[in-house]
């Protein structure tokens, strides 16, 4: 209904409705008028006919007028369909009436006019509704009035006949309305097809602007029908083709056009920017067929390209240079390496712009350092890239240091921050004065023109790029400067990015190396080898540790902080330090990871903002912590979101023990960490690793585990050989994540290295145990440490008997690393059922005790307490390196040092 056709349809339909309604109203009004006229005519006719009927006069003059007239009144009423026929006397008395009951009554009404001889007709509102009455005088032969005949009739009685005609009128009106609406719809449909459904406003705008748009465009427009006749041509087309005034409706071939152009216009094929000659003009012709979207034909546009010929060469050169800049953007900066980026700049420059290109950078840029000093103070550059020359070229070689002199084009370009164009090198004295011999050699090789552009990024001069042209190429011109500067600007940003990355990468690597273990500690429970490989994208947060614990036990740690960069490396250092501190306290493996989880959660709460927390920017870390006891072969291990270990048994089979894996660190929400206990045969290899070893972009977790199984399966190998084999089999060309690998071969302390005694809670039991300990040390060939061992053991057992609880157990361990028969350590362990730990203090003068632990701390290399499920273990470790018994005098002086001489 928004289209013009719809609006016309609505208008036509409204007109038809109005006409039909007006006609119907007129017919109804006319029918009402006809009803009233019919009523008047009927009553008057009946009254006159009855009054003038033969015998009426005689009947009225008879002795009994009612008897003579009454029978005829009812007959006339029924025959004429009126309401009544009434005969009055001149005195107003009813002589005859259709209703016999009214006979003899005096009637008050308008009969007096009829009595005077004047018939009349009137309309009145009675009890039966609107009625019409006519009265006619009855005259005697002599002309005198002897009576009155009155005939009334109600309009409703006459209306019934009209009402029977009303359905016919309505049916006719409806038929006329339907016929008119159908005709309007057909007309509207045809109009809609011809106007394409456009609205009145759109058609008005289209026709108002048709001529203006068609004739104002600077392109010629032709519309040609399917028979090759020209239907329309705008002013520009008439001008370009010199068309005659009567060109429209004529055949294209009859308009005097060039034969090839006329052939294209008459042909049934499209064209795009095909060039044709029309008189002295060169036209670019485009043609589109209108079918199947319209009637058969075509629309042709013409553009005058004659003036473009003069600048086509410049445009082509500009296009080529834009393409070169686009290609340079793809080829320069593919890596974050300063030297490689400089080489890419030189290679791109010699492709289409210069014959030779050299890139000279400052030494701090190559090292990734910040640049200090003003550009005018720079006197040295390092040749970083050369392209376009073969061996034996006369220019400075790569990595050669170039010392600049004032007024040299390179020095001026850097000092003034602008490009320096030297069209003729032979005429440039400043360039020749730096190294005259080399300058002559360069000129002899045909190099004749130079363009120096400084490499500036973020307001800092990084170096220069020099473009050279040799024999066979034109000299550089001013129009070449803009392209050279744009190329240098893009490359300078890439070089500066690479410099910044080099600096940050160097700092991150230095930080990471300072946080990772420098060397493995000495211990006798495991033979350990490791590999650590940072990702190509930068340093990460993977770490490993081997931590000696009391009782010859060793803790193995492998962890991974999510992400790369300084933040990951710093977080890794904090977690590694925390693991060391917790491990020194001899915590159970599950408790240690629980404390580490709390630490990571605290780090998140202190360092992560609420917005970062909602975005998931929290510290993500995984960790695996295992403690191996060589006296029993037991391995306690707990995992927080980390891949499980691999166990290579002595027969070469590989197993991945099923462990309970807790959530990653910081996400456990206070839930306990589950631990597992394994018994590891002697000679087994325990392999701990981070996920970067088994996962990458081309390999999923299951495939990585199978590959690791294949790499570990086989004959027995040393941990070092195992690391080499695993890295060779699993390492990809460009690892996307850090890799930490820890391989430990297990050892067991033999029965000849362990001595254990049960001690009753009796002070008298200390002596026998001390004697047994001395006997065992003698059997081990350690007579030189018997005195010190008895001293340490006596103090530990005495403390357990006095302050501890049963059961009390004494264990003596002798460790001896492979390849060092004279090295090792002696470990004393006294376990009891009490959880009270002793502490070292300086005894007062009046104290009877408090000096035993001081002696233990003095003569033992290390000592401490660890808690067990049944109590505690107090241990002391004595090194066997150059061990000797203390002199008695020295021991006395040591004891005397516990008292203050002034207090004595």
TrEMBL record:
<dbReference type="InterPro" id="IPR003018">
    <property type="entry name" value="GAF"/>
</dbReference>
<dbReference type="InterPro" id="IPR001932">
    <property type="entry name" value="PPM-type_phosphatase-like_dom"/>
</dbReference>
<keyword id="KW-0597">Phosphoprotein</keyword>
<protein>
    <recommendedName>
        <fullName>protein-serine/threonine phosphatase</fullName>
        <ecNumber>3.1.3.16</ecNumber>
    </recommendedName>
</protein>
<keyword id="KW-0472">Membrane</keyword>
<dbReference type="InterPro" id="IPR033463">
    <property type="entry name" value="sCache_3"/>
</dbReference>
<keyword id="KW-0904">Protein phosphatase</keyword>
<keyword id="KW-0460">Magnesium</keyword>
<dbReference type="InterPro" id="IPR035965">
    <property type="entry name" value="PAS-like_dom_sf"/>
</dbReference>
<dbReference type="GO" id="GO:0005886">
    <property type="term" value="C:plasma membrane"/>
</dbReference>
<keyword id="KW-0067">ATP-binding</keyword>
<keyword id="KW-0812">Transmembrane</keyword>
<keyword id="KW-0547">Nucleotide-binding</keyword>
<dbReference type="Pfam" id="PF17203">
    <property type="entry name" value="sCache_3_2"/>
</dbReference>
<dbReference type="Pfam" id="PF07228">
    <property type="entry name" value="SpoIIE"/>
</dbReference>
<comment type="function">
    <text>Primarily acts as an independent SigF regulator that is sensitive to the osmosensory signal, mediating the cross talk of PknD with the SigF regulon. Possesses both phosphatase and kinase activities. The kinase domain functions as a classic anti-sigma factor-like kinase to phosphorylate the anti-anti-sigma factor domain at the canonical regulatory site, and the phosphatase domain antagonizes this activity.</text>
</comment>
<keyword id="KW-0479">Metal-binding</keyword>
<keyword id="KW-0418">Kinase</keyword>
<dbReference type="GO" id="GO:0000160">
    <property type="term" value="P:phosphorelay signal transduction system"/>
</dbReference>
<dbReference type="InterPro" id="IPR000014">
    <property type="entry name" value="PAS"/>
</dbReference>
<dbReference type="GO" id="GO:0016301">
    <property type="term" value="F:kinase activity"/>
</dbReference>
<keyword id="KW-1133">Transmembrane helix</keyword>
<dbReference type="InterPro" id="IPR029151">
    <property type="entry name" value="Sensor-like_sf"/>
</dbReference>
<dbReference type="GO" id="GO:0004722">
    <property type="term" value="F:protein serine/threonine phosphatase activity"/>
</dbReference>
<feature type="transmembrane region" description="Helical">
    <location>
        <begin position="166"/>
        <end position="187"/>
    </location>
</feature>
<dbReference type="GO" id="GO:0046872">
    <property type="term" value="F:metal ion binding"/>
</dbReference>
<keyword id="KW-0464">Manganese</keyword>
<keyword id="KW-0808">Transferase</keyword>
<dbReference type="InterPro" id="IPR036457">
    <property type="entry name" value="PPM-type-like_dom_sf"/>
</dbReference>
<dbReference type="InterPro" id="IPR003594">
    <property type="entry name" value="HATPase_dom"/>
</dbReference>
<feature type="domain" description="PPM-type phosphatase">
    <location>
        <begin position="527"/>
        <end position="815"/>
    </location>
</feature>
<dbReference type="InterPro" id="IPR029016">
    <property type="entry name" value="GAF-like_dom_sf"/>
</dbReference>
<keyword id="KW-0378">Hydrolase</keyword>
<dbReference type="GO" id="GO:0005524">
    <property type="term" value="F:ATP binding"/>
</dbReference>
<dbReference type="Pfam" id="PF13581">
    <property type="entry name" value="HATPase_c_2"/>
</dbReference>
<keyword id="KW-0902">Two-component regulatory system</keyword>
<dbReference type="InterPro" id="IPR036890">
    <property type="entry name" value="HATPase_C_sf"/>
</dbReference>
<keyword id="KW-1003">Cell membrane</keyword>
<dbReference type="Pfam" id="PF13185">
    <property type="entry name" value="GAF_2"/>
</dbReference>
<dbReference type="InterPro" id="IPR052016">
    <property type="entry name" value="Bact_Sigma-Reg"/>
</dbReference>
